[in-house]
Write a structure and sequence with these properties.
Elements (H helix, E strand, L loop, with lengths): L5 E5 L9 H12 L6 E6 L5 E7 L4 E7 L20 E4 L1 H8 L17
Parallel strand pairs: 1-2
Antiparallel strand pairs: 1-5, 2-3, 3-4
Length: 116
């Protein structure tokens, strides 16, 4: 089993033809280094495909998931918000929700049910 302690969501759309070396280059150029046991998630422009790049301490693993219908819930980048961060750290619960298509950004909203 590959251990992932920290997950990062790369917010810029990527060409899904990119392999592990190209994605690793993007990580290193964006955040400065690829750390062991960190995972980096990438999506294409339509958010119908994602790639996970993981540094396991010895090398890198690259896995792909493709949806035949629908889209992954991804960050929306507005054209006027060019200064938005290039990466975003995810919790394990957010990652699990993202990979099955749930609204991972809103997970905290559902922790408590109360009267408003």
């Amino acid at each position: 089993m590959i251990r992932i302690d920290t997950l990062w969501l790369c917010t810029q759309p990527q060409d899904m033809r990119a392999g592990a070396d190209r994605l690793l280059n993007i990580v290193v150029n964006t955040v400065g280094a690829a750390h062991a046991h960190h995972g980096y998630l990438f999506a294409n422009h339509r958010a119908s495909r994602i790639k996970l790049l993981v540094h396991d301490g010895f090398g890198v693993w690259c896995a792909t998931r493709r949806l035949h219908t629908g889209r992954f819930v991804w960050l929306e980048r507005s054209p006027g918000n060019a200064s938005a961060t290039a990466t975003l750290q995810l919790t394990v619960q957010q990652f699990e929700a993202l990979t099955v298509g749930l609204p991972w950004q809103r997970l905290g909203e559902f922790d408590v049910i109360s009267r408003s």
